[in-house]
Specification:
Layout (H helix, E strand, L loop, with lengths): L1 H19 L1 H54 L5 H36 L9 E13 L3 H4 L6 E18 L2 E11 L6 E12 L6 E9 L20 H7 L4 E10 L6 E8 L21 E8 L1 E2 L4 E12 L22 E2 L5 E18 L9 E17 L5 E16 L4 E11 L7 E14 L2 E12 L1 H7 L4 E13 L9
Antiparallel strand pairs: 1-2, 1-18, 2-3, 3-4, 4-5, 5-6, 6-7, 7-8, 8-10, 9-10, 10-12, 11-12, 12-13, 13-14, 14-15, 15-16, 16-17, 17-18
Amino acid sequence: MKNMITLVTLFMISLFSTGVFAQTLEERLNALEDNLGKQEQVIQELKATQETVRKQEQTIDEQRKLIEELKVEMKQGRSSAPAEGAAAEQAAPAGGMQKEVEELKEKVDKVVENQTRTQPGIFNPAIGVVGETIFGYRSGKMSETGSGRPGGYDVNQRSVELNIAASVDPFAKAYAVINGSADPVTGELDLGVEEAALQTTSLPWNLELKAGRFFGEFGRLGYIHDHELPFVWRPLVLDQYIGGESRSDGAQLNWLLPVDHYVSLTTGLGTQFGGDNPPNDPGEFRHFSGLNFWTRLSTYFDLTPDISLEPGVSGLWNPHTSAQWADAQSTGNPNGENPPLPAPFGKTFTERERRLLGADMVLSYRPLRNNQFQSLTWGTEVLYSDNRYDVANNAGSRSVGSTGLYSYLTYKFHRQWSTGFLFDFVEDMVDKRAKTFAYSPYITWVTSHWNQIRLQYTYTDHNAESTAAFGLRPDHAVYIQWAWIIGAHSHGWQQR
């Protein structure tokens, strides 16, 4: 009876435990599994410790054997030198390791010191100087060539250029170019600010803004400095239609289009455009139409792994170019008009509206395996000038559409040597019947990145209308250009 009661009691307890405390049993099983895992981990650690102890015991045994051998040698009266040598061999690794640790510590200390130390010139801008001298001979007189330089033998210190550039903050950088050149008549130094601009570095949407005095992006070589040109003189069409370098006081926005292919769009505005052009309407009040507006669209194509094409189109518009000169009396313009342009047959033209279109391209061959020693570059730019002028001897105005172009081919046959040919053609911007042609072979020796010498011959020819209207005649010229760079300089010699 007691056994029966005991069995019934155990059976009830089992059922109760199974039904009510099933979850507690599962937790206990999980706890047991965790404990088992920890015990296995402890066992692995003990095994590792046991292996370490075994190695240490082996090392101790070897050292004991060495000590016994040394004792035997000492008893036999042998020299203690071998023992000292053996001890030195045992100590050598420890001493070498100690030396390496000390050297590493010394290097780390130097790195920490350099990171915390403020160097005296760390905030100074990068500074560079470019000098350029042109030795020349031209067969015609100044009145016959239409050049600003005298004929015959001439030495022209065309420019001494001081470049200063630095980051302003994490969002912008700034640069300035101070240029000094010799006056062709008096020889006196003419010093001025060629560029001084601020340029952003972190605008969103692939935008970049530049403001101040800078070379506006128009055409292929309009915004290139003289010493960067692949030949001695700026092409005739750029000198006449743009005014040399495309200098402007204003602002320019560049947008890299968010497409897979490279496409760049630039737009800008400024009070002037061109190195020889005065600011528009610099009087008491300037209308919005007195500003210059320009734009450029360019892209790039890899035709083959060795051949690339860079095309572009540009436009410039100044709706109203009338200028109120502050020194009107001294310039001979008491009415405050733009200075009259030379025109044929005694007429004078005053520019009222400026319109200029351009298309350019550069085709380059640069073999991947030998591009330091060999390349072929063909560059061409065509400009169309469609300006409106007031004619002094005739009531009313006249629009003149003129065309000009230049095309050059440069072959680089050595790391330091290249040769090429430049062709110039331009129709006069006030009389398109007057045409000028120029042919210029040249050879360039780049002795280093900082030193360059160029030899160029130029034959200039004019048609009959140009000779009759302006008195220009054919002439021959030989030039030697020597340019150099010292210090930091962001741009080098133009090779495209």
